[in-house]
Amino acid sequence: MDKKYTTLRLLLGDQLNINHSWFKEKDASVLYVLMEVRTETDYVWHHIQKACAFFAAMEEFATALDRDGHDMHYIKLDNPENLQSFHSNCDALIGKFEIQNFQYQLPDEYRLDIALKDYCNTLHIQNSVVDTEHFYTKREDVAEYFSEKKSILMESFYRHMRVKHNVMMQGPVPLGGQWNFDQENRKKLPKNHKPFPPLLLQNNVTAQFNRIIAAGIKTIGTIDAAYFPWPINREQSLELLEHFVNYCLPLFGTFQDAMHTNEWYLYHSRLSFSLNTKILSTQEVIQSAINAWEQNPDVIAINQVEGFIRQILGWREYMRGIYWMEMPEFETLNFFSHQRDLPDWYWTGNTKMNCLKNVIGQSLNAAYAHHIQRLMITGNFALLAGIAPDQVDFWYLGIYIDAIQWVEITNTRGMSQYADGGIIGSKPYTASANYINKMSNYCEGCSYDKSERSTANACPFNSLYWDFHERHRSKLHEHPRLKMVYVLWDKIPQHEKTAILERADYCLENVNRL
Ligand SMILES: Cc1cc2nc3c(=O)[nH]c(=O)nc-3n(C[C@H](O)[C@H](O)[C@H](O)COP(=O)(O)OP(=O)(O)OC[C@H]3O[C@@H](n4cnc5c(N)ncnc54)[C@H](O)[C@@H]3O)c2cc1C
Ligand code: SF4
Question: How many CB atoms lie within 10 A of CB 156?
Answer without folding.
Answer: 14
